[in-house]
Amino acid sequence: MGDVLRKARAMRNVSAAATAHAAGLTEAELATVEEAGNFPKRPNFAALAEITGLSGPKLEGMANGWLPSPRDLGIWRELRQVSTTERGNQVHCYLAWDEVTREAALFDTGWDATPAFQLIEENQLQLRHLFITHTHHDHIAGLEAVRTRFPKALIHTDAKSAPPQHKNRRNDYIQLGSLRITNRDTPGHAEDGVTYLIGNWPDDAPHVAIVGDAIFASSMGGAPQHGALAREKVNNQILSLPADTLICPGHGPLTTVGEEQAHNPFF
What we know:
This protein is of the alpha+beta class and 267 residues long.
């Protein structure tokens, strides 16, 4: 909750004093909310939502403890979430592969690529691709280790500084055995933000969207300078996908398009 309010205030350049006044809180009480995530008393959700540009009912639902339903990645069989932590910041990367060819793709590296390397070895995979959602350090800290260990793996990114052969094109699609990977631009939190969509899973499992920090369960990536762009891109490129699409964010729990449409206060 505190994270959501801080980001929303920053996007609208609204002061803590104005936000607290609208919500019927003192500045000290608002600071407690933004630090600990709990309201010391019931605020005026409608006024709080209006000044921050959030949805009042969804904000209230979040305050009441809404969380996305737990997801069983076994539905997708060849998809794993890999989490690494540094200085209290946990970040997720993802490994997907084709069950027949054993060709694999890694989406971001996290702080340390070692756990991903272990999965690759345990499942006897061939890493063919590294897809980068954005170039913030916590998502690519293991990049050099991946390049050293798998020098033939193709790198895909929206970074402007990347060599042409590594840059995504919007009409690209990559075949990973039977899996098909496409990309959608989702800048805002990061200039080079991009979402990767994985389809053609066995047993018709829903599509998977690897979103980086574009959107989280009940939240989104901070974008104080480009909030409108970030929200527009998430709406058009992610929340327009089928409701059962699995959202795999860089931080926090897994969620779905349908759950975020119904519960994310930014949208």
